[in-house]
Automatic annotation (TrEMBL):
Domain of life: Eukaryota
Domain FAD-binding PCMH-type: 66-249
GO BP terms in the entry: cytokinin metabolic process
Organism: Digitaria exilis
PROSITE patterns assigned: FAD_PCMH (PS51387)
Subunit-structure text: Monomer.
Keywords, comma-separated and alphabetical: FAD, Flavoprotein, Oxidoreductase, Signal
Protein's name in the database: cytokinin dehydrogenase
Keyword Metal-binding: no
Similarity comment: Belongs to the oxygen-dependent FAD-linked oxidoreductase family.
Broad class of enzyme this protein falls into: oxidoreductase
Length: 545
């Protein structure tokens, strides 16, 4: 009944002209379940906050597309506190939803828990209790790993491992995300083509199930729960610890962007660079971006990467008749700063590589930074956007995995047709990954056809009321095109508003997901904001997810 589709947009304007667009949840749903009285007799009761200031903090997310206020915000001190809360709910005659909140960087209300309790995971890392990041010490035998609390931010994990000369093999573009939040999706970035998504580097997890059981799991121990929780969208348990494999950390990075006017050359070069045999001569990190011509002409005249001179040069390229888009390969090559021979060797390797690629002659833009500067690069963008007042705006993002064999059709239908003359604020990423680095026993899904698929991320920022509606329409047009052209795509960071959507998303995995849900969260109390299963509070308000 209360399908998201049938809910109206409500748009609030602040005096700063910064907008918060919210798909307003039905009032009946929010009013649904006052929490059972005896919850407040538990030992953890003093950490369950029901005051408006607390609940308001957990009522939306980075996307600012949905809003719903929970009944309470819970600040656990230990994983056992979380287990106690979940055990109470699942064994109660009136179970209520429980949603872990990592850093709240989801985009479609996935952390919301109307009628229930949001668990402030970050509270686990505060205060004077046990260490929440342990790196296997130097002198230990490889494989090296870090044990990190599910609430930890990747930036803190990275800083701790770098002290030992080690780093996670794959990092997301932005590090102010939690370990538990990204592992519940997959965790992708420019190193995933070689090492797979972050979930592929996990050796072991501590998970609290929907019955409040604390389970340690791995490929050899409770493997069913291990695979379910990785990419599990929070549906099977709360990740309180992850043991993550590490590799040696480089000291410095040559970081380049290469501009292309032809999508054919751009994708051909990207696909060559992700081949296993390119590991000797290629980049250690590969992503790519799509630049719409109008955005280049009318957008900022310099960015955190490109100088004023660079943008002027790119405008010259884009001015060629007929071009509506240009493309950048973003590559990084690691090197050690010890000794001039090594630095010279790195430069030679880069020169030799650039000689094999077909970007527009002369359109190489490079930087030389430390590894941590490189990994934390989006933080600098955040600072710029925040100071311009355009960070906390609605983000109607659409993230897609597109099979290699259809990427040119995608480009033609989406960038050269739907967005041909538009000028949306935001960023478009496009880069390929190797499917054989993904473990299909995990919950995350990838396109079923092809050995290579592209991540195409439409990372919009809505700067005005009209933008929210326009971008919403554009995203719908993209999805309609993909269906019509039978592109065989999957959503990453998926959001579906009906079970039918989820069935299509998971395909052959859906029946297994139903079995796993019944086994590990039979009351369907966990992360109801994903709208995958009928949650208890929604049942009582007779609304359907
Ligand atoms: C600026 C920006 C850049 C990004 N870049 C990338 C990128 O490069 N690569 C990439 O893969 N993703 C990227 N993301 C997406 C990001 O991985 C997701 O938004 C994810 O939700 C992580 O955010 P979070 O830790 O704040 O989790 P939240 O948004 O707080 O939670 C996400 C979901 O997971 C559940 N959850 C949270 N913690 C746990 C836990 N411990 N156990 C079980 N379930 C849990 C929540 O209930 C919710 O359903 C980016 C997001 C932003 C905003
Ligand atoms: C709630 O927040 C407001 C504004 O920050 C503050 O003035 C008020 O004292 C807070 N109330 C409580 C109960 O903390
Ligand atoms: C880190 O090690 C300490 C001491 O052994 C332990 O108490 C703590 O639980 C560990 N933390 C994690 C996240 O594994």
């Amino acid at each position: 009944m209360a399908r998201t589709r049938s809910l109206g947009f409500l748009i609030l304007t602040s005096f700063l002209c910064v907008l918060a667009a919210q798909l307003q949840l039905r009032p009946s749903m929010a009013a649904a379940g006052a929490l059972p009285r005896d919850l407040f007799n538990l030992g953890i009761a003093s950490r369950i906050c029901t005051d408006h200031n607390s609940t308001a903090k957990a009522s939306t997310d980075f996307g600012h597309m949905f809003e719903a206020t929970p009944e309470a915000l819970f600040h656990p001190r230990t994983p056992a506190d979380i287990a106690e809360l979940i055990r109470f709910s699942s064994s109660s005659p009136a179970p209520f939803p429980v949603a872990p909140l990592g850093n709240g960087h989801s985009g479609r209300g996935q952390t919301l828990a109307p009628g229930g309790v949001v668990v402030d995971m970050r509270a686990l890392g505060r205060g004077h209790h046990a260490r929440r990041v342990n790196v296997s010490a130097a002198g230990d035998e490889p494989p090296y790993y870090v044990d990190a609390g599910g609430e930890q931010l990747w930036i803190d994990v990275v800083r701790a491992t770098l002290e030992h000369g080690l780093a996670p093999r794959v990092c997301t573009d932005y590090l102010h995300l939690t370990v538990g939040g990204t592992l519940s999706n997959a965790g992708i970035g420019g190193q995933a083509f070689r090492h797979g998504p972050q979930i592929a580097s996990v050796h072991e997890l501590d998970v609290i199930t929907g019955m409040g059981e604390m389970v340690t799991c791995s490929v050899t121990k409770n493997s069913e729960l291990f695979f379910a929780a990785l990419g599990g969208l929070g549906q099977f348990g709360v990740i309180t610890r992850a043991r993550i494999g590490l590799g040696p950390a480089p000291k410095r990075v040559r970081w380049v962007r290469l501009a292309y006017s032809s999508v054919v050359s751009f994708t051909k070069d990207q696909e060559m660079l992700i081949l296993d045999r390119a590991s000797d001569f290629g980049f250690d990190y590969i992503e790519g971006q799509v630049q719409l011509k109008r955005t280049l002409f009318e957008g900022p005249k310099s960015t955190t990467f490109f100088s004023y001179g660079d943008i002027t040069k790119l405008i010259g390229l884009a001015s060629q008749s007929g071009l509506s888009t240009i493309y950048y390969i973003e590559g990084a090559m690691y090197y050690s700063e010890d000794g001039t021979t090594l630095v010279d060797q790195a430069l030679q390797k880069m020169e030799a590589l650039l000689g094999q690629l077909s970007f527009e002659p002369g359109f190489v833009f490079s930087k030389d930074v430390t590894y941590v500067q490189f990994l934390d690069r989006v933080c600098e963008e955040e600072r710029v956007l925040r100071s311009a007042g355009v960070w906390d705006v609605p983000h109607p993002w659409l993230n897609l995995f597109v099979p290699r064999s259809r990427i040119l059709d995608f480009d033609a239908g989406v960038f050269k047709c739907i967005f041909r003359d538009s000028n949306p604020a935001g960023l478009i990423l496009m880069y390929p990954m190797n499917k054989d680095k993904w473990d299909d026993r995990m919950t995350t899904v990838t396109p079923t056809s092809d050995d290579v698929f592209y991540n195409v991320a439409l990372l919009w920022s809505a700067l005005s009321t009209n933008d929210v509606e326009q971008l919403h329409r554009d995203n719908k047009a993209v999805l309609a095109f993909l269906e019509k052209a039978n592109i065989g795509y999957k959503q990453y960071l998926p959001h579906h508003t009906s079970q039918d959507g989820w069935l299509q998303h998971f395909g052959v995995k859906w029946s297994k997901i139903i079995v796993l849900k019944a086994k590990y969260d039979p009351q369907a109390i966990l992360s109801p904001g994903q709208r995958m299963f009928l949650s208890p509070a929604k049942v009582s308000s007779s609304a359907v997810a």
